[in-house]
Each structure stands twice: as C-alpha cells, then as structure tokens.
Amino acid sequence: MIKETFAEKIYSRLNVLLLLLLSLVMVFPLYYVLSVSFTDPREYLKGGIIWYPRGFTLENYRYLFSTPLFIRSIGVSTFLAVAGTVLGLIVTSALAYTLSRKRLLGRKTILMVILITILFHPGIIPNYLLIRDLNLMNSLWALILPALSSGWNVFLMKSFFDSIPASLEEAAVIDGCNDLQVWWRIILPLSLPALATFGLFFAVAHWNVFFNAVLYINDFRKWPLQLVLRQMLIDSNTSAGGGNVLQEGQIINPQSIKMAAVIIATVPIMMVYPFLQKHFTKGVMVGSVKE
C-alpha cells in the first residue's frame, strides 16, 4: 500500500469537500421542489425558504391526479417512452449488427452515408416538411419514427458488436441458425450492457420530448407530459395550474401544484436507473475500448 504524503492527504480531502459542496448545490433544487410539493399551500403563502415540508399534505398531488389533461399526458409520455425505447433498440441494434458484418455488400458506402448524417444535419424546416408530407402531423408517431436511431448511436453500438468474436456467429450458423436468429439468440443476449445504456438514453429522450411535440402536436389531448408542464408554468389560468382555488376547504396554490408536477415528471426516470445500474456502468464504455 502506497503511503500518502501530507500534501496528497490535503489534496484528497479538499477534493472530497469540493465534491460534497457541488453535490449539495445540485441536489438542493430538487429537494426544495420536493419540499414545496408536500407543503400546505397556506404555509407556502407565508413566504420564506421551505427547508422542509410545512404542514405536510398530499393535496397538490391529489389535485394533479384529478386533472384529466395531466393524467392523459402521463399516459402519452409513458407510451412514447416504452414504444420509442423498444423500437429504437430494435432498429439501432439490427442496423449496427448488420454493419458490423464485414461480408455485407456495400458496407463501406452505407457507413459513409450514415457518417454524413452525423456531420450534416438537415435542420428544422426539412424535418417539418417531411413529417407534414408523411401525414404524421398530430400523430404520436411523429415523435417516435424520426428518433428511432441516429448515426452516432449506430456507430457506438457497431463498435460494441465488433468486439464480439466472429467464432460465435460461425458456431451458430453451423448449428443451423440464420442471420436473424444469430442476432436475436446470440448477439442480443451478449449485448445487455449496451442495450441497457442505449435503452436508458432512448427512454429519457422520449420521456422528456418537448421541442418536437411543440412542432408536430397541436391537439392538446396528445400532449406529452413536458408540454403540459410547460403550459402550466406559463399559463396560470390552465385547468391544472390556475390561481388560488378553494376546493373542499383546501387552498390550491399554483406554485405548489407546479412543484408537484415537476416531481411527477422527474421521478419515473430516476426510478429506472437503479435497475439498469449494473449494466450501465459497463455500457457507458461502449466503443471506447476494443480488444
């Protein structure tokens, strides 16, 4: 064991202190939002910093879950996250596996075309015209299909597949598997770290989809959660975020409602990460080291 010098000990402790301070700075806003969401509106209206929930109440959450628009938006965002993640993983992994096979005809040309999509992005207007001409306006598929994959994701997952020994594929072919069966039965089970990592990226992107929803979704009944939350934050007269309302003897404060909505929009993704953590740590290194 290497013995630390006095200067190294001081340096290590200063690093720990700095990281703790940074962690507190990052965590405090979320803690404050959580505290306000559980605070009685009467207590919140008294002013001051809410260090802990004053007059603990669940009325803010009850009010949100009694709002049809908010409930519908949770369902929309859930559909986008689940469908978008599953389809995105299927398309990205299938394309990446195909391009990782050197026997594919035109492989280099396809890789070059995908590389061009990374270097040169068409922009907002061409994408909007494409969605309009495909009759996908006001359709949730307008938020899923364009995001099924990206050149960057394909290249990263291809690098992971390149590290899988070709002998496994050859053995599966000898046993009678075709290309589809090799991909489904051999490659995907060996790629759980990569799939978990990209699945988390896809899920977060679809759950937090906002800008594309603003462009393509005009029907408020199809708004995802982030769009409803944005409407609540800018319009105090919406049904989910109106002014102070007396409902069955309980004061509903717009700020408390907004804080509760932020927590509801944030917690689902935070709950997913622990289940993927064991794969995520390895998966973030996808493509960085090739044996």
Automatic annotation (TrEMBL):
Parts of the chain that traverse the membrane: 12-34, 69-97, 109-129, 182-205, 257-276
Keywords assigned by UniProt, alphabetized: Cell membrane, Membrane, Transmembrane, Transmembrane helix, Transport
Listed InterPro entries: MetI-like, MetI-like_sf
Domain of life: Bacteria
Transmembrane helix as UniProt keyword: yes
Compartments it resides in: Cell membrane
Bilayer topology annotation: Multi-pass membrane protein
PROSITE patterns, per database record: ABC_TM1
Alphabetical list of SUPFAM superfamilies matching this protein: MetI-like (SSF161098)
ABC transmembrane type-1 domain ranges (all copies): 74-276
Record-stated family: Belongs to the binding-protein-dependent transport system permease family.
Cross-referenced PANTHER family: ABC TRANSPORTER PERMEASE PROTEIN MG189-RELATED-RELATED, POLYGALACTURONAN_RHAMNOGALACTURONAN TRANSPORT SYSTEM PERMEASE PROTEIN YTCP
Protein name, as recorded: Carbohydrate ABC transporter permease
Organism expressing this protein natively: Paenibacillus sepulcri
